Amino acid sequence: MNAEKSELNNALSLQQEQGIKQFLTFIMADEEYGVDILTVQEIRSWEEITELPNSPDFVKGVINLRGTIVPIIDLRLRFGLSSAEYGSLTVVIVVKIEFEQGSKIMGIAVDAVSDVYSIAEQDAKAVPSLSESNSCEYVAGLVNVGEKMIALIDLQKTMNI
Which Gene Ontology cellular-component terms appear in the entry (predicted)? Predict the structure, then answer.
């Protein structure tokens, strides 16, 4: 617990002092995506969930997380990617997202967790507009890390159901 607080304090310190954010990255359909590590509450292995009737396809259901009912979103389906079988590498990243109405705890199902990167805000590039309807509305920016490109996710837009 103290190690988690120390890591959180280090992340906050880096953001304030140098404009550097830390991102937890994960894999979906052989591509790497990232979310601000300060939104991540915990990472859980895949478990059975309770399905909700009449919910959108990408809302897989809910889990009970220590007394809190947490909706689980399949990010592959939310992004319009092909669905995949849930397996031993599938994880749920539990995030806390701030909305105008207040904060919400939600889970996102992804293929696998990858790494944590420290990224300077000025290194993130805007997503090029491909058409009049912005099909990349869930991506806040793109950043190169070594030889790979990571799409940084805008969780507020992605999770606003």
Answer: cytosol
* HEC secondary structure over 28-58: ECCEEEEEEHHHEEEEEECCCCECCCCCCCC
For residue 88, the model assigns a pLDDT of 84
Instruction: Give the integer Cα–Cα distance in Å for 26 and 21.
Output: 16
Return averaged pLDDT per consecutive 10 residues of the chain, 161 residues in all. 53 59 91 93 92 91 93 91 87 91 91 90 74 63 88 86 68
Alpha-carbon gap, residue 154 to 91, rounded angstroms:
19
Find the Cα–Cα–Cα–Cα dihedral 37, 28, 47, 54, rounded to 10°: 100
E-strand stretches of the chain: 20-28, 31-36, 40-45, 59-65, 68-74, 91-99, 102-110, 112-120, 139-145, 148-153
Please name each of the domains of the chain with its CATH number: 2-159 (2.40.50.180)
